[in-house]
Amino acid sequence: MSDICDIPGSITAPRHLAIIMDGNGRWALSRGKQRVSGHREGANAVRRVISLSAQLGVKELTLFAFSSENWKRPALEVNALMTLFVQAIKKESKSLKENGIKTCIVGDKTRFPAILQDQIKKVEELTKDCSVMKLNIAANYGGRWDILQATQKLLKKCTEENLNFNELNEDSISQNLSVPTDVDLLIRTGGEKRISNFLMWQAAYAELFFTDTLWPDFDKKDLIEAFTFFNSRERRFGMTSAQVQNKEKDNAD
Ligand code: IPE
Ligand code: IPE
Ligand code: MG
């Protein structure tokens, strides 16, 4: 586990943190290496951030590992990523369990090689009763896919149970998403300022933090910077600043 002794006590972690882990390829190319070595180094950053997030009190962490659009990449890179996923899950399962990390892989898993689907089932089963932090690894994930599959599930339920479509509400959609909880802080590394079809519904009111740091370099300092930014925001959810402050005062009394 990473050392958190030197982290300011005033930092409050977001409840649900989501990260678009971007920049592995550029990290490798800038060192004259193959893109896949950037993905390998990125896996070390994943380990670091899972551990730090749990220690800092994040309750749910959703990491974007492979988008539904990433199949468009060269076969060599896609295959290397699949192998890396299998290896990483195999290697980390025990430590995830020991550290109380309930791990779920979210996305359309049907397209994955059988060996990867097996590893996914194993780690999900092994960690199912863990309660320190929930970790969602988004793989073959797309925000639009998630909304579509939630809609399909709801329509099926309505048809089978003869329920009235007009009674569906926003919560019905949220509850049927593969990641049902709203995101509090969304970080994107690697300098781009876009969502790239990540948690389209869940990030509706997320605070957004963009950093030029490439994912393999992302460390404790970057995470603290993001949390400090998060702590400095006033989350108004449509209200006025005065209303928010009164509400906070009432809650404190
Ligand atoms: C993110 O890094 C990892 C995946 C999308 C799998 P990239 O591979 O997109 O890195 P860049 O953006 O090309 O540097
Ligand atoms: C988003 O990164 C997906 C992941 C981090 C897994 P990309 O590098 O694929 O995003 P775009 O294509 O530049 O928007
Ligand atoms: Mg990228």
What would your notes on this structure say?
This protein is of the alpha/beta class. It contains 8 helices and 6 strands, in the order βααβαβαβααββαα. Strands 3-4-2-1-5-6 form a 6-stranded parallel beta sheet, sandwiched between helices. α2 runs parallel beside α3 and α5 packs across α6. It starts with 15 loop residues before the first strand and ends with a helix. It binds 3-methylbut-3-enyl trihydrogen diphosphate (2 copies) and magnesium ion.
Q: So what's the overall shape? A: globular
Strand content: 5-15%
Rg estimate, integer Å: 19 Å
Global mean pLDDT = 96
Question: How many separate helices?
Answer: 8
What kind of sheet is the major sheet? 6 strands, parallel
Helix-strand topology string: EHHEHEHEHHEEHH
The ligands found in this model are: 3-methylbut-3-enyl trihydrogen diphosphate, magnesium ion
Strand order of the largest sheet: 3-4-2-1-5-6
Spatial separation of the terminal alpha carbons: 37 Å
Say how many strands there are. 6
Instruction: Report low-confidence residues grouped into runs of 5 or more.
Output: none
Helix content: 40-55%
How does the helix and strand content classify structurally? alpha/beta
